[in-house]
Every structure is written in C-alpha cells, then in structure tokens.
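Researcher: Next entry in the queue.
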Amino acid sequence: MPYPISDLHLHCSLKGYAADGHPDFAGQTIWDHFEERKAELQKLNGPLRKAIENTAKFSQAHLDACVEAGLMAPFLAIYPVERQLFDCDPQKPFKAFFNLLLGGKQPAYLGSAVSGFPLDRVERIIAAFENGSDTGVNYYEEFLKERSWLLRQRDTRSKKYRQHRFEIASDHAEFRNLISGGNTISGILTVEGAHSFGHYLRNTTFKKEFEDLADDERKILESSMLRNIAEVKTEEFTPFFVTFCHHFNNHLAGHARSFSDKSPLFLGFNKPGMRHLFNQTAGMNRGFTSLGRQALELMLDRTKGRRILVDCKHMSLQSRREFYAVIREKREKGDPIPIIHSHTAINGWWTLDMAEKAVETAELDRDQYFSRWPINLTNEDILETYDSDGLIGVILHESRMPGEAFKEKARQLKKKADNARPGSDREARFRQELKELYLQLLWSNIFHIVKVVKEGRPGSKPADAWGMIALGSDYDGLVDPFDTFPEVAGFQDLKQEMAGYLESGKPVFFSQNGEAVELPPAETRELLFGQTPAEVLDRILFGNTERFLGKYFTEEYLG
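Model: Structure for this entry, 559 residues:
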C-alpha cells in the first residue's frame, strides 16, 4: 500500500451525480472515469472551444484514480452548481462579441462541455431563466439530492479494484478505523458555497444587492437559510466545513473575483476573459450581510447541533477581515476555532489593505512569477490562520497560482516539447524542464508560507508552519490543472518528484510584497527546521490533515 494521501478539496461526486439515471451513463458510479463531452465540444464554435481548452473536462478524481494515488482521505465537496454558471451575461467591451458567439444552443453546449453534465440537463437549467423567465432555485433541494447520491455510493464497488470500498466518516475515530485496513477510501463531507442552504425566489435575486431584495425574496431566503443550516447540524453526516462563498452573489458575504481578465494577444489586440462572459459584480468585494452574520453564528454554534467549521476560500478581503475578527473574539473568550483555506495559493502582499489596492487584471500579473490577485493569500491571511491553529490547502491550478511570466515560460517549454520529435532526448528534456517548473512553483508557495510564519512571529523560538500546510487540489472542480499532474492518479509521482526536486538543491522562491525573490540555499535548509523533504511531504500530504481531524473532527470539539 502506498503512503496514504489526503486532499482537502475535491469534487469526486460532481460528474457522477449529474449523470445519475441518464441513459448515456447507465451503470456508472463514483468509481468510474467520465470522458469529456466530445459531441458538445465539437458543436461549440471555435472561439468558445478555444476559451475552455485548458479546463479539465474529463473526471480527475473518480475513486479508481484515488485508489491508484493512495488518496484514502478525500474531502468531498458537495456543490449545487450556481445558476450563474449557465446564465451567460456578457460584459463590455466584449458584450456584442459574446452575444454573436452565443446564438442558438451554444450556451447549452458550453455548459455541458465545461461541466460534463448531460446536455438535456443543462438545457433544463437554462430553461428556467431564458426568454424572460424569472424562475428561482432552491439550492437546498439540490444539496440533498447530491448528498443522497453520494451516500448511496457506499453500496457500490469498483469494477477494477474489487477489494476496495468507499465509506464516509462521521468523526476522526471512525476515519482512523476505516483507513486502517488500507483498502477503504474514507470520505469526509464538506460543502462548497453556503448558497447550498438557501431558496432564492427568482433568478434576478442574484443580480441584486442584499439591501435591495424585495420583501418576499428576503423573507424566503432568510427563513430557508437558517432553517436548513439548523437541520443539517442535527443529522448524522453534518458537513465538517463549508466554503462560505463561491463565484457568485449568495447574499451572505462578499466574494472575491475569480474569473480571468482579458489577456494580451499579438499586435496589441486583446482577447476576452471569463469575467466578460460571467458577471460576478453583484455582492463582489463586500463584507458580511446581516443574514450572513446569522448564518455564520449558527454554523459555529455548538449548542444548536453540531458545529460546522468555515472555509474562507473565495471570501472577499472585507469578508476575511470580518471573519478573522469574529475568530479572534471567540478565541479570546476561550472558544478556539481554526481558520481553513481549503484550496488556495499565495499572492505575496503583506496585508489585506495592500491587496485591496490591487486590481484583478492581466496587467497586475504581467511579468510576475506568482499571481497577485486578492483571492489568494496575503501574509496577513497566513498569520491569522497560523494563530488559529488552522489549515491551508495548496491548490494545483494553473489559472490561480502562477503569474504571467511563469505562464509564458511554461507555454514556451510546452511548445518546444510538442515540436520535438516524439520519443527523442530533446522532447524528454523539455518535458522534464516543464515538470520542474511546476514543482518549483509548488515548493515556492509552500516555502513562502513557512518563511512568513517564521519571520512574522518573532520570539526566542522561530514559529514552525510545517504543521498547517496540506494539499487542496480542487480537482474535478472545473479547473485548469497543472499540465504535468492533471489528475489525482499521479499524486504518488507528484510526491516523489517534489522530494527529488528539493533534494537536488534546485531554486525556490518567495514573494516580497508581490515580487518573486529566490531563497538562498542556506535559508531553504534552515526553513526545513531539521526535517528532510520526505518528512515534510508526509506531513503535507497526510500527517497534518490527520492531526487536524484528530483535534477538531470529534464529538468533544464539534459538540
């Protein structure tokens, strides 16, 4: 059995649940690989097909792949897909361009190709808001359906690995018991997006600010949100944590911009980014609403059912400020609550205030090694998480972690490898250089976290951050994965390659207020705190998560 691996944020159930009962997928379960929707891809016009070419459209985290990776502890993110991901809302200056491209059934083909959902199911979602229809959505019903499907998968078996089974742990003791035999994948339930608990009366509800909701919209949203959170807190499989925000307005807390800006092409022309196709404006960059405050307190309450921890990924800078203040206050009153960032990267800004001055455009990341977008972690975020005994899951996402200088170097290496004679030494050399480039980026994010904590908490004994770092790939979350490690099946290789890279003494960087600086080799060795690369990797890929579960995934702590 390979050394076990955990992943704080995966969507193992997303494609399987969407395909449940559909004749195209008869007999397929959470164990099975799902191919990309080739028919829908071929029906997309050229520009739209090009726009999504790097998004992973096949399943990356089905359970057979988890077996091959030794990924025995996947954190299973239930995600009722947000309506706005199918409701294209072209933005200036590319509004006319997108309106031209999105004629006929192109929105449905696009939604099916990206998500992997059957076309007819995407068409039913779109029908709820096209041609002037203003039908809302009860996300809690969708949450219950996906959770029910996921629980039923415990009765399925792999067609390839018959000795393996799948279970869901309700606490740490059960988790340890399940994985002890080496042939059981022990999932842990989480949720991406607190919208999952709300009934949004109309489609136009999402386009308004919370203060502008009509009385009936607000009443139904408030009553459903609080009632449904209270309900899941009393059930057997209460989510361990909830990613409070996601891509769009949920009327609870402000989200950060997550979709890309336009990118420069040749001769000074520009191409549109996903932000010009999907409108994230409503609610973006705000703090908590009054309803969001109530929902937060209810989740964290231990006297009204089981506590649900909160994941800060996708929160705006202002929402993070307000959340950290709540956590500090509770800690001072004797109620420690760990801060979680389940799938993220660093941006290098020293403070939240500095990051707030950064405008999320392609220009911000031009000539940069790290992406400096505010959705990523500032040093202040890192220190708040350390002080809370929290956990940071490092994402494997090409659109989120690197800046444009890194991306350009990766593109050039990939082009050279593709142009080399297949099987030649030249091709192998370029492929290895490309792999090492991504390994360098991953280690640089990790060492930045360790350096920030060591220097940010001065004292007689330097603070050691190696216990707060984990893996949070976001695979099967409609992401652009690292070219060299595109699915979970390669995680054991990733571990070996990471160890080899660090042992070889190759360079590692950190971000000095947004600018990449190479770490001196002596400092890199010092930041290991006497551990070997293999030892810190064992902690990152499993040990830290197991420790965290042992402390917080218990009846004694959650109540």
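Model: DSSP finds 20 helices and 15 strands in the chain.
Researcher: Noted, moving on.
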